[in-house]
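ARCHIVE CARD
Drawer: 12
Card no.: 0347
Subject: one protein chain, sequence and derived structure
Cross-reference: see card 0346
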Amino acid sequence: MPLTIRPNRTTLTQFLIEERRRFPDASGDFNALILEVALACKAIARCVAFGELGGVTGKHAANDGGSLNVQGEQQMALDVLSNNMFIHRTEWAGNLAGMASEEMEVPYQIPRQYPRGKYLLVFDPLDGSSNIDVNVLVGSIFSILRGPRELEETGCQVTEHDFLQRGCAQVAAGYAIYGPTTMLVLTVGNGVNGFTLDPNLGEFMLTHRTMQVPPETHEFAINASNSRFWESPVKRYVDECLAGKTGPRNKDFNMRWIASLVAEAHRILVRGGVFLYPRDTKDSGKPGRLRLLYEANPIAMIMEQAGGRASTGEHPISGADCPCSSVSSTAAWVDVAGGSVTRTCSGTARASQRPAWSIACASPTGLVRRAPADDQHIGGQSFSYVVLHSGLMPAVLITWAHFRVSERI
């Protein structure tokens, strides 16, 4: 049955044109780039919707034993397909100087037959792809940066260093979520807006204007199957939440876990909550799992624009320097540890690996409680805290290099 079209719905194109009017001298390249990204997301949504019928589920190169990306993770067929869709939909238009993807070992150079632009596109083409075969939510994450001026002036090839910018340098960030409906959540630095894909028109329509993280919640998200590998402050915090009204936080909480950053972030943006991806001892070579460039920075920008916060405890994620400057640079991993974050520096990493950050979103009431005095930092490393939370609910104040947290603020 055809749906009634509301004549007052704003399309993504109309929204971007209205935003552009605030900058009369804008060239239109920025709008064009976002629309090409949106088209890539529509194409990915279509492939996801067909599932097994489309013949694109399962592992990539399964007949050859599968393939791994540069993080050492198993690539799914849709990972590679989604990555190619992002590339081929955006490379030709003349608004990009280069791209970087979680699925690519080195930055992608714009082919010589296409004009070059001033922007850099960074993306995770299909977040949560391990959920595809069980028909659970997945999504795409993207970030847009301004390239160094000399790229535009000289036409030289992009390098890894060009992408290693602070999160506050992002000019736009967003994600698409592929579920019962396909949504595009976008910030261009002027709040967060959500667009739902109208399958009749093939257009993203503005359905969630000026999204805000709810100030209170009763939900938190963490993978409890790893609890035996957690550091003691993480375990204590989760145990206190699970204790509910009879515990020290005097409130009942529900625990969620979808294993997709996009899905977790979207739920928190709509309903509030906390997302924790803590450091653990399960794999000492990978103390963190989330990448600053492709995941933490864009999600942090969205949360901050929606009234939330993204902080390492010492400074916002958006102000964090990427400590790596070449393919063989040391990786810096920053991970939540129950009111604190462990920063370790070890091993070598490619651009797509570094650094990995864990995020918490939208602090629930009663998140903060003074840690026992006998909690010590581990291995002499430094500590901070990563949290995205409602602007109305400051979560914690952390002293650098310790697990101590403040009383409720």
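Annotation on reverse: Residues 12-208 form a domain with the Fructose-1,6-Bisphosphatase; Chain A, domain 1 fold (CATH 3.30.540.10). Residues 57 and 133 are 6 Å apart (CA to CA).
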